[in-house]
Amino acid sequence: MQIADVQDEIDHELVSKAQIEGKIKEVAAQVSKDYAGKDLLLVAVLKGAVNTLAAFSQALSINVQMDFMSLSSYGEGFESSGKITVRQDLSCDVKGRNILIVEDIIDSGYTLDWLVRELKGRGAASVEVFALLEKPSRREVEVPLKYKGYEVPDEFVVGFGLDYKEHFRNLDSIAVLKPSVYEGAAA
Ligand code: IMP
Ligand code: MG
Questions:
Q1: Which of 91, 145, 152, 171 has the fewest Cβ atoms surrounding its Cβ within 10 A?
Q2: CATH number at residue 80
Q3: How far apart are CA 43 and CA 47, in angstroms?
Q4: Would you say residue 99 lies in a domain?
Q5: What does 11-57 look like in DSSP terms, one character per residue?
Q6: Is the Cβ atom of 99 under 6 angstroms away from ligand 1?
């Protein structure tokens, strides 16, 4: 889906499809170098990171494994609660593995801070993070972000995996919604 298909609900585009693809390729080249000859497990946080994981994993030139975890910190509102619940756990044992967490966005940092500590606690050999987007102005917890994409302002964004009430995940770029879409909605 493109912005033109939902233009009544989109205010403006923040990161284009071409920019996203370019950045993902750049990061994939670096990661392929850094992990050459090593075992690597990509861990994606469902559902938002799925689009990034798909594009990123295909752009790698090394053979990796992938696993998924579903975490919830937001409910249906805008603010991260800080309280993380595991909706669906990994299907593999991470003991001794090199892990690269793939995330859509770091906002407060609560989700990733929890996940990094959790995976280390399970005995992972190393845990690094790639987030396609970050909102630096909103950070409440410091997260070691080794690989990053684009910084975005403190606005609620959708597209390329990111949703508003489960919609707009299949938009091929990153965009800001018109306030009319969420006006009156409970935070
Ligand atoms: P954090 O725990 O506050 O860092 O929030 C991380 C999670 O909240 C991300 O993985 C997203 O799923 C979601 N999130 C944060 N900001 C946005 C946004 O602007 N649009 C959509 N989802 C967001
Ligand atoms: Mg997410």
A1: 91
A2: 3.40.50.2020
A3: 12
A4: yes
A5: EEEEE-HHHHHHHHHHHHHHHHHHTTTS--EEEEEETTTHHHHHHHH
A6: no
Q: Is residue 6 part of a domain?
A: no
- In a domain? residue 176: no
pLDDT tens profile 51-75 = 999 999 999 999 999 999 999 876 5
Boundaries of domain holding 91: 16-153
Q: What is the three-class DSSP state of 153?
A: coil
Establish whether residue 111 lines the binding site of ligand 1, counting it when its CB lies within 6 angstroms of any ligand atom: yes
- State yes or no: is 107 an active-site residue: yes
Q: What is the pTM of this model?
A: 0.93
144's tokens: 């070691």
Instruction: Tell me which ligand sits closest to the C-alpha of residue 163.
Output: 1
- At 32-43, the pLDDT tens digits run 999 999 999 999
From the CB of 49, is ligand 1 less than 6 Å away? no
User: Is 162 domain-assigned?
Assistant: no
Contact by Cβ (8 Å): 167, 181? no
Encoding tokens for residue 57? Answer: 């994993």
**Model pLDDT for residues 88-112, shown as the tens digit of each residue:** 999 999 999 999 999 999 999 999 9
Closest CA to 42 of 73, 68, 16: 68
Instruction: Give the DSSP letter string of 155-167.
Output: S-EEBTTB-BTTB
Q: Which ligand neighbours the alpha carbon of 139 most closely?
A: 1
Q: Total domain count for the chain? A: 1
